[in-house]
Design a protein that fits this description.
The complex is a heterodimer. Chain A is of the alpha/beta class. Chain A is built from eight helices and 15 strands. Chain B has 18 helices and 15 strands. Classes of the chains: A alpha/beta, B alpha/beta.
Chain lengths: ~280, ~475
């Protein structure tokens, strides 16, 4: 596996980019819902990122990231043709996909990219896939063309109303669920508040709801428990038992506080990086 | 049996960093013998006709011979003897529990202090430049691989796999080691701290294997990136599973998921593999708490506690439900920890971890225990003293209460029989599993134990593989 970046595309300039990486063995094995762990340089940390797409024949995987801290900022400095030091995967349990009828896939922000891979899986399994995507405004939406290409329904929500419904994805989701009692499953990937809100909306409808947790991880193979979360009163490891869990059972408060535990160090690292890179 | 005239009943002391200096740095605690000290100590060996020490060694080092060469000042010959059976002498010289193995069997130990075999092993391994180990063993500058019509794969790159690779590479077999993490060495790099086993020492031993033709594949997760069946389909004649027992146990007490509660695996992996002690020079962050409680009484608990001290914690407590006498840790590790300032909270068992309004650890509630009747392990069973608890003010808790089998590879391997406790069921004589030509050894078979016992299991499996592939010398 060369880990060479074959293609780089700025989806939202300076904020979100897409990389197509040469990683044939991972491409061969990866299924929707899987993630990889990257390391950018020899003093780097291990960063988990959900696989947004694969092309087993070309031997490539696609990842999409939001520049939020030092590691993603470093990743953003890499150009086409350059090598990512470590790419490890596919990790996590793949999404449970079977032919089951109508599936609504909800994606928010960078989560839309990860949702895309799962929506594609459900489509290939013969399900009727309704994609609901949301962002603050039109310019921040991702993967709409790709999703529109295979989803019979693509519903959009933006905070400012620049595209689709003005408001949240949950408004659109509630509407859609009210119109159609035959939805078998809802999949939600995005910021924690969005996934929590989706689970809240679907609960009265009694629809199975899957959320994908972006917990802090170290090894990503079940060795450390950094990513542990409370699902229905039981401790589970997001890296090997997940990352997808029953959204009606996840303790989102605990997830939120565990996600924030390195805020100070993350800021310290990022400030240092900015000073070193002169911005 | 004639004991030499100037026989010294006391072993040559190991030079160490002073406790109040070393508890602030990550440099190695034990500094190693000088040549003079090593030769002096080697000369305490009485060269028994029937050396009992060798029976105590899981990898069957010819101890009498290597110590004899050293006593005569011939370090290269001593090194050659070590490397004949041990792929990792610089590691073993540091982390083996010699007191229960070779040194525990040394005849001198009956009346005096036993020969410091571990320290001698370390001296010889450190003195000799492992990079040219290949030349040393084979007499050629680069190892030829005369048996390249066969090939063997190992999953996991810890001590058992490295031993398999060393044994087979010495017989000319190409070995490929697949490792899930980005660095080679398994527990030697993610688990054991720098101050006990420097990463450079591990890298040197790994480098020697590389020079002998072993191929290393980091970032390949057994069961995810590649399965056992893939390896068989790729034409590997034998596969060795040495993935360790890396799944951390928790206690299922309230507050275990609060911010500031760590498994020892997470804490040590951040600091050892991620070099978080050097944050922000390295990117992996580590917590910087003031008061730390480590739960457990084994070597890992000692490693975690001593690491927390070095990272500037004011108080580090080890809480253990029995007394010091029942602690499973090596005596040397316990002594080092106490010397450095670790405080023992004995006869206590945690019942709850308490958080503040931000869900951050602020204290731990301990049940006070007393010792009752001996249990199955022969140790006196800790029994709760009714109604007696105490509160320990801490802002971090590390659980070092053991590890179990990681299911990732096992779930991906149909036909692999497991024991009741979830470990791999392997033939104790050959290491072979329920799948023909698939072997297993180390913690994934026996549960968490020592580096050297994993190496012993690796050696057994490697011998069977060598016989079966008809490459045995």
């Amino acid at each position: 596996m060369s880990n060479k970046i074959l293609q780089k595309k700025a989806l939202i300039p300076g904020q979100t980019s897409l990389l197509v990486i040469d990683a044939p063995q991972i491409a061969k094995k990866a299924k929707p819902g899987n993630f990889v762990i990257l390391r950018i340089h020899d003093k780097g940390e291990r960063v988990p990122l959900t696989i947004a797409d694969t092309d087993p024949e070309a031997g490539t995987i696609t990842i999409v990231y939001l520049v939020v801290g030092k590691s993603s900022a470093l990743l953003e400095t890499l150009k086409e043709g350059e090598i990512i030091l470590d790419v490890c995967g596919p990790l996590g349990k793949p999404t449970h996909i079977e032919k089951c009828g109508t599936v609504i896939c909800v994606g928010g922000g960078t989560g839309i990219a990860a949702m895309h891979h799962i929506a594609k899986g459900h489509h290939k399994a013969g399900n009727h896939v309704v994609a609901i995507v949301g962002a603050r405004s039109k310019d921040l939406l991702l993967f709409c063309d790709e999703l529109g290409g295979f989803c019979p329904e693509l519903l959009i929500a933006t905070d400012d109303g620049s595209s689709g419904h003005k408001g949240f994805v949950t408004d659109v989701l509630r509407d859609r669920l009210e119109k159609d009692k035959d939805v078998t499953e809802v999949v939600a990937i995005g910021p924690v508040p969005m996934m929590e809100a989706v689970a809240k909306v679907t609960k009265p409808f009694g629809v199975r709801t899957v959320v994908s947790l972006n917990s802090i991880m170290v090894d990503g193979v079940g060795m450390c428990g950094a990513c542990r979360c409370n699902v229905g009163g039981e401790t589970r490891f997001a890296c090997v038992d997940g990352p997808e869990f029953d959204g009606h059972k996840v303790d989102f408060n605990e997830l939120r506080m565990r996600l924030a535990q390195y805020k100070n160090q993350e800021n310290e690292s990022m400030d240092l990086f900015r000073r070193e890179h002169g911005n | 049996m004639a004991i030499k005239k100037k026989f010294n009943p006391i072993r040559t002391p190991m030079p160490e960093q002073p406790a109040d200096v070393r508890n602030k740095n990550f440099k190695e605690v034990a500094l190693g013998y000088s040549r003079e000290q090593a030769i002096e100590e080697a000369n305490r060996c009485i060269q028994c006709k029937v050396p009992l020490c060798q029976k105590g060694c899981p990898v069957e080092i010819d101890i009498k011979s290597f110590v004899g060469h050293l006593a005569a000042g011939d370090v290269p010959s001593a090194y050659r003897v070590l490397k004949e059976t041990n792929a990792l002498p610089a590691v073993c010289g540091r982390v083996c529990p010699q007191e229960t193995q070779c040194e525990g069997s040394c005849i001198l130990g009956k009346k005096h202090e036993p020969v410091a075999i571990g320290r001698l092993e370390r001296f010889v391994a450190d003195t000799f430049d492992s990079d040219s180990a290949c030349e040393m063993i084979t007499g050629h500058t680069a190892c030829s691989l005369p048996n390249d019509q066969v090939k063997v794969a190992c999953i996991g790159s810890g001590p058992s796999s490295l031993t398999v690779a060393g044994y087979l590479a010495a017989r000319g077999v190409p070995v490929t080691i697949y490792e899930a993490l980005h660095e080679i060495g398994g527990v030697l790099v993610y688990g054991i701290p720098e101050f006990r086993l420097p990463k450079a020492v591990v890298a040197r031993e790994v480098g020697a294997l590389w020079a002998k033709g072993v191929t290393f594949m980091p970032n390949w997760v057994g069961g995810k990136t590649i399965t056992i069946q893939d390896l068989i389909d790729d034409g590997f004649d034998a596969v060795f599973i040495g993935v360790g027992a890396g799944l951390p146990w928790f206690l299922n007490i309230p507050g275990e998921n609060l911010v500031g509660v760590y498994s020892s695996n997470e804490y040590l992996t951040r600091i050892n593999l991620g070099r978080a002690y050097d944050f922000p020079n390295y990117d992996t962050p580590a917590p910087r708490p003031r008061n730390v409680a480590v739960i457990g009484g084994g070597n890992v608990a000692m490693d975690a506690a001593r690491t927390a001290l070095r990272l500037g914690a004011e108080n580090v407590y080890i809480t253990y439900r029995r007394t010091q006498d029942e602690m499973p840790a090596r005596l040397e590790e316990l002594h080092h920890a106490i010397e450095e300032g670790v405080q023992l909270e004995l006869l206590t068992s945690p019942i709850a971890i308490n958080g503040d309004e931000n869900s951050h650890v602020k204290s731990m509630t301990l049940q006070v225990m007393e010792l009752g009747e001996p249990d199955a392990s022969g140790r006196r069973r800790p029994v709760a003293v009714k109604g007696k608890t105490k509160e320990l003010e801490v802002d971090m808790v590390i659980l070092a209460v053991g590890t179990g089998a990681n299911p990732v590879l096992l779930e991906a391997t149909p036909g692999l029989n497991l024991s009741k406790s979830g470990y791999i069921d392997a033939n104790p004589e050959t290491g072979e599993t329920s799948i023909p030509n698939v072997f297993a050894g180390g913690d994934i078979v026996g549960g968490s134990a020592t580096v050297i016992s994993a190496m012993g299991a690796g050696r057994k499996a490697a011998k069977t593989i060598a016989e079966r592939l008809k490459v045995e010398l």
